């Protein structure tokens, strides 16, 4: 027994998936199609998608926002967990992968629930005039803007709402002492700032590549 987070080797990780992953055939097909793309690493882990769906249900979230959508796996997980009155705004850049996301959302019958806005996310966020109206915001876009996305998230979330950041352990690169990469520096800055940010309650889960949950106080 140990009082620290387990280090999952391949077989224990596979066990975790075997006993808990409830991926639908549609999600599995989307994940396989995405896996063949050059940017496949942008896709969330399937257990993260399932966890996001659980968060939507746990919090009773109705108004969702996603920053960084790619081929739409996490959006599909979250939209499927919404009640009929719920909706999801997705921010991403125009790219060939937008069509993949839309195709799967349509096939799932969730196309009407998801509003994909194609522009730099900071531009879309700046135009969102619904302060305090979002219940949950999932952030998985360009890492260099993570600190800026936090500020937008805190403006847009209701009190008690959740901001969820992906890749906050960044494959371990957060340990670099003099990172060349602006992405690494931004994730480090976000993590450091969140530690003492009195505006949020905080937990960094070692799920996937690190998933940080911030509850707006
Ligand atoms: Ca990610």
Tell me what the structure shows:
- InterPro entries: Cation-dep_OMT (IPR050362), SAM-dependent_MTases_sf (IPR029063), SAM_O-MeTrfase (IPR002935).
- One of its GO terms (molecular function) is S-adenosylmethionine-dependent methyltransferase activity.
- This protein has 217 residues and is α/β, with parallel strands linked by helices.
- The protein has one domain (10-216): Rossmann fold (3-Layer(aba) Sandwich).
- The chain has helices spanning 10-20, 25-35, 46-59, 73-81, 97-107, 121-127, 146-156, 182-195, and strands at residues 63-67, 87-92, 114-118, 134-139, 157-166, 200-205, 211-216.
- The chain has a seven-stranded mixed beta sheet, with helices on both faces.
- Strand 2 (87-92), helix 5 (97-107) and strand 3 (114-118) form a beta-alpha-beta unit.
- Helix 3 (46-59) runs parallel beside helix 4 (73-81).
- The model has no long low-confidence stretch (mean pLDDT 97).
- The chain binds calcium ion.
- Residues 44, 140, 166-167 line the site of calcium ion (CA).
